[in-house]
Amino acid sequence: MTRALLLSFSPHGKAAQTFKLARALLTDLVPDAQVSERDYGSQALPALTREYATALTTPGGLNADAMALSEQLIVELQACELLILCTPVHNFTVPAALKAWIDHVVRIHRSFTLNEQFAKVGLLGDRRTFVLVSSGNARKGHEPDFLTPYLTAILATVGIHSVEFIYLGAMVRGEAAVNRALEQAHRQLSAAISAGL
Ligand SMILES: Cc1cc2nc3c(=O)[nH]c(=O)nc-3n(C[C@H](O)[C@H](O)[C@H](O)COP(=O)(O)O)c2cc1C
């Protein structure tokens, strides 16, 4: 049995095309998967509290109450063997909803630590991860992509290195374009998931 964590960071939540595609493929290709689905896009995580920020930045500032939500999200992430993040591009980068999840999950002394050279070292362990990225523009060429390098770096910070990106571009250019993007992503994701079974 594969424990999968499927997260949506779209304002459309579980109705986002990326989320529906990922869920359908998991049902078809990994029927024995135990899937935890979360909508952190339309039901956004709360803003960081002052207590949480203080706990993270004060030596010896451990504060279990302030870190309770962070702990819950980290435990949920740690428990999965297969992680799928479904996210739109917002203004060249990750949406605020995904950044909020990152700020709760990337926590010093818990999901990463510092080595003697003060470099960040991940503590969560690697796991197979897919990032389904939905954008209005066709992906290549026209605008900067801060999402891919940022997510690659921040996931590596907590120890997740096996990350594959699947891009659904031109999603605002009408039904035919959406269908083309979905078909291509379906092919890529099913091939990638099947290869890992
Ligand atoms: C606030 C906002 C900012 C956006 N910024 C970009 C952008 O920088 N580049 C882009 O290609 N598309 C951008 N888009 C378009 C979305 O990425 C696109 O519609 C995507 O398919 C939405 O995915 P979703 O339905 O899963 O949320 C933006 C959309 C919104 C609402």
From TrEMBL:
Q: Which protein, by its recorded name, is this? A: FMN dependent NADH:quinone oxidoreductase
Q: Describe cofactor binding as the record notes it.
A: Binds 1 FMN per subunit.
Q: Which cofactor does it need?
A: FMN
Family under the similarity heading:
Belongs to the azoreductase type 1 family.
Gene3D superfamilies to which the protein is assigned, alphabetical: 3.40.50.360
Q: Which organism is it from?
A: Pseudomonas synxantha
| Class of enzymatic activity (EC top level) | oxidoreductase
Which reactions does this protein catalyse?
N,N-dimethyl-1,4-phenylenediamine + anthranilate + 2 NAD(+) = 2-(4-dimethylaminophenyl)diazenylbenzoate + 2 NADH + 2 H(+); 2 a quinone + NADH + H(+) = 2 a 1,4-benzosemiquinone + NAD(+)
Among the GO molecular function terms of this UniProt record, one is: oxidoreductase activity, acting on NAD(P)H as acceptor
